[in-house]
Amino acid sequence: MHELIEARFRALNPGVDFCSLRYVEEARETLAVRQGVAEPLARSLDRGAMITVLHRGGYGYAATSDLSSAGLQAALERARQWAEASRSQAVFDFSGYEPARPSGRYIGPGAEQPLDWQRRELTELLLAEDAASQIDARIVDRAASLGRLDVHQLYITHDGGSVEQRFRALIPSLVVTAYADGVAQTRSLGGQYNGYCRQGGMEILAQAGLAGAGQRVAEEALQLLAAPNCPSGSMDLLLMPSQMMLQIHESIGHPLELDRILGDERNYAGTSFVTPEMFGSYQYGSEHLNVTYDPQRSNEFAAYGWDDDGTPAEKVWLIKQGLLKVPLGGAISQARASLPGVANSRACNWNRAPIDRMANLNIEPGDQSLAQLIAGVERGVLMDTNVSWSIDDSRNKFQFGCEYGRLIENGELKGVVKNPGYRGISATFWRALKAVGDESTLDVMGTPFCGKGEPNQVVRVGHASPACLFGAVDVFGGEA
Amino acid sequence: MMRQYFEAVAEAVFAALDEAEQATLWLSGEQSDFIRFNHGKVRQAGQVKQCYLTVQLVLGNKHVAQTVTLSHVLDEDQHMLLGVLADLRDALGDVADDPYLLLNTALQSTQRSEASRLPPAEQMVADIVAAAAGADLVGILAAGPVYMGFANSLGQRNWHETASWNFDWSLYSHGDKAVKRGSAGTEWDAAALQTAMAEARAQLALLARPAKTLAPGSYRAYLTPAAVGELVSMLNWGGFSEREMRSKRSSLLKLQAGEVSFSPMLSLSENTAAGLAPAFQAEGFIKPAEVALVREGKYAGSLVSPRTAREFDLPSNGAGAGEGSEALDMAAGDLPMAEALKALGSGLYVSNLWYLNWSDRAAARITGMTRFACFWVEDGQIVAPLNVMRFDDSLFRLLGSELEALTAERELLVDAGSYGGRSSTSQRLPGALLRSLNLVL
Fold it and tell me: Which BP terms in the Gene Ontology apply to this protein (chain B) (predicted)?
């Protein structure tokens, strides 16, 4: 298909300063079971193209699912019209902007390999885990699913640029709810919002621990049901990777997005407490904090070779030893702000224009084992698996909740606590980072559901993180 | 024209079915111009022409579905859909009988088509830029036709087509201090836009005053309909869903059990007749005009999808698979909106809330932030803009013991959302006066 589209695009006579076509084809299928019954099989094949025009300093786009020559010609014309109509009243004059003309091919792990996707056997696996979670009459709801995603992208420019990229991802999930005496507790495998999402093939099932998860997750749900609420007060907080992913995402990723700093998102997703002059001088966190944008960690959910404006992607240190260095801004935002950035101009699909997004945003490992991290806590709580998230529009005042908590007293793990939550302020929270776990504590997580942008876009992001220990955090539990 | 195209596509699919097969089709399409604004100018302008078709193939109690993009080139789409049918037949061999399959056999065809009365989007953009001259405007205009259609091989046809605009915007004073507005319609009125912009500019003067930072604690508060919308949207996060109720994850479990109640002032319903969303859902079930959810503070009902109806042997009330409200209606109270500040006395005027989530779902305890033009009020007069504050409180308290009054006037809030496609959901809500709201950070 992509050869045909490229040939049709090449045959157009754009008559503009610059023109690109971005073709996206996404095939999805999800197998799901609930309460011992297979849910309806859901499949999708989504394909279309966006044509972007830069002309006489203006910018316009048009996206269409009509991939015929006439359809692409019509899209080109509409994009040109918007470039013309907006150029005299635009935020940014594109006449001095030099877009990328990339060339190459990126194949994500497993993307060109056959996938052993046997629906019956996989459904049986899900049903077996679902059944294994029915360990007690108090288990009132069970669900398990496995999604696959195959993406094929093409980015070509009118003057010869051409990039092809292919990706494959698998998304296993398992969620169990226990209920008794008016109290419900839900526990999951990697989160109720698909925290185990990775690029690659069937090896992801083993990495996520799907086999055997049913019983373990159900046992933890019952533990939570019997547990006291998390205590309240100021104490040490040990966050596991399945919560760290959310902490990174909300209070480092979003505030560092350059389009937010430039004000584009103020009507919807919000602004940022970070300002342009902070880069290079602002102490974002303690000396233990090292944050990277790493599209080259290939099994992470948002690994790629080029972003959607054709910029080649490579690892960049955003925060080093706590010092803020580089924002998350793509080529256009870099030009607008006169700041360095990364290759993170991304669109959720063919029908949305690229904007600054997180991709793989990670915390680099430290030097402490989990046992050492725990041993360093006199009084605190370990929290695992995000379940609730809320942060202000400047990405500063936050409150997060987790599925599962364990007390830590005098360097030892103690009992389970339910409804663990904590709140803080981004600008000071990361400075309370006391220690960072080593590679053995690291897990590769992500989310398919990062929302932002006008019109709205949900993109895939990855977050690899070790366990991290914070001091003097405001912790609380459930009920009033 | 799109309707005729849908008919032609449906005809091709249904003609290709084997005798024992049934099929349903769900179409969702739009041709939207999207224009983003920042600093009173155009940030990003373009058009999206998309059309998705979901084909469900049914054989006995087995069924599978696939969603595809239509190209609008009929012979290409017909050819592609024959391939989809072949794939679905293969997939049928991999699935078991579905005990919860419920097909709509009560055929009821409907049609609602409104011809576009919109001017070219370029004209609307010019009007906006002119009205915002010199102001720090940020936001988005979405404009153009939206289509939704259902067809099944039994002969039912449903079509919903409107051409509308939605302009969701803010005027910024400085930092995070801004006036938030939104409006939508099927006819463009440049004069009304200028009036709205002028009113917003007038409020900017209040935001320019030195901001007040509150200490955590309990405060009286008046919530505008937009802020009330954020609160009740949390109830729509599985709360009204019958399936979530049965799986014990609904935040309204305690309400259903009669352990708690809201204020007798609170009545909520899914008022499809007064909303903007189609009166049919993706499986062809027709929605009743209104479904009571909360009546005078007590549990009154839930949203029941066809699948849930079959699983729990209940009647369906036309809810979609997600069992979420698309036309939420809250009964009005008797406080004139013009007297809201006077009734508040001293406390918070909350124009908008933001980023709500659960602190403890089973207790309907939520957290969230104040946002945009929130003010500190003393003796019924606005004194100062507020720096953003985090609240953490129970919905059973806020809309229960602490609910002092609801306004007599209600506002129709049209969702500006566009994840995947432009939303057709809406809410009709009053403002709310609260005896206390707990601020925590």
Answer: proteolysis
Report chain A residues whose CB lies below 8 A from the CB of B369: 390-393, 397
CATH of A2-226, one of 3.30.365.10, 3.10.129.10, 3.30.2290.10, 3.30.9.10: 3.30.2290.10
Same-domain pairing of B259 and B367: yes
Residues B195 and B241 in one domain: no
pLDDT digits (tens, 9 = 90+) for B79-129: 999 999 999 999 999 999 999 999 999 999 999 998 999 999 999 999 999
ipTM: 0.97
CB B213: neighbour CB atoms within 10 A? 10
Instruction: For residue range A287-340, list pLDDT tens digits in order.
Output: 999 999 999 999 999 999 999 999 999 999 999 999 999 999 999 999 999 999
**Is residue A117 less than 8 Å (CB to CB) from chain B?**
no
Contact B357 A60 (CB under 8 A): no
Residue A79 near chain B (CB below 8 Å): yes
Q: What gap in Å lies between CA A210 and CA B156, rounded to an integer?
A: 42
Q: Using the beta-carbon criterion (under 8 Å), do A68 and B178 form an inter-chain contact?
A: no
300-339 in A: which are within 8 Å (CB) of B? none
Q: Is B87 on the interface with A (CB under 8 A)?
A: yes
Q: What average pLDDT does range A1-28 have in this prediction?
A: 95
